[in-house]
Amino acid sequence: MIAGAAAAWNAVPVAQRRMIIALAVAVCLANIAQPYPDLAPLQHGPTVALLFAAPWLLRRWPLSTAAIGCIFAFLLLHTLGARWIYSYVPYDDWARAVVGHDISSLFGTTRNGYDRLVHFAFGALLTLPMVEISRKFGGLRGGWSLAFAFAFIALGSALYEIFEWLLTLIAVGETADYYNGQQGDVWDAQKDMAAAQVGSALALIALLRRPD
Q: What's the pLDDT at 53?
């Protein structure tokens, strides 16, 4: 078992191994003096599982360092949001400390928008990996790979929103409200999915403009 794990780890490019280690460190730091310990396993559990599986997944289905970098950046954003269960990421406090003004006042909103940013990042950062996966392992070419990536972002966003809806049926009280992060917006799911699709569309435009 140990020998197999070592072989899988050594098969991963050095740059990608460093990203895996950095993400593991970020998850550990995010759970120091965890402000929402009851929800931390639900927020960080999938990331931890992916960290353990990453060497085997990348040996079986290797991806470019650029694609892994996109996944790494998205998971870092998620890990930061997960510490404060998204709805309470104190970015206004950080902005006031740095520039003396908060972000919410600048945009005239009272809603914590960090979750919307991460939904946008889901589309913007995971489109490239999905294009690469569809080409390397799905045999898709040209526009078909781009269409697949765009459709995958839509499907992934919809499935996640369905998961959140199912959570509200299983969990009760503040647990569901805190995790879902709707913040009183009945159109939150639709806006989240739209943000992801906008991010994916921009990523596709960037890929189309990139020199071959």
A: 96
CA gap 150, 196 in Å, rounded: 10
pLDDT of res. 106: 83
Q: What's the CA gap between 170 and 180, in Å, rounded?
A: 13
Phi and psi angles of residue 144, each rounded to the nearest 5 degrees, phi first: -65, -40
Q: Which residues are within 8 A (CB) of 118 and not within 5 positions of it... i.e. 6 or more apart? A: 74, 77, 78, 81, 86
| Burial per residue of 35-46, b for 16 or more beta-carbon CB atoms within 10 angstroms, e otherwise | ebeebbebbbee
pLDDT band, very low/low/confident/very high, at 68 (cuts 50, 70, 90): very high
Report the C-alpha gap between 30 and 133 in whole angstroms.
Answer: 30
Query: Which of the four pLDDT bands, split at 50, 70 and 90, describes residue 111?
Result: confident
Query: What's the length of the chain?
Result: 212
Q: Which of 55, 132, 24, 119 is nearest to 81 (CA)?
A: 119
**At residue 72, does pLDDT exceed 60?**
yes
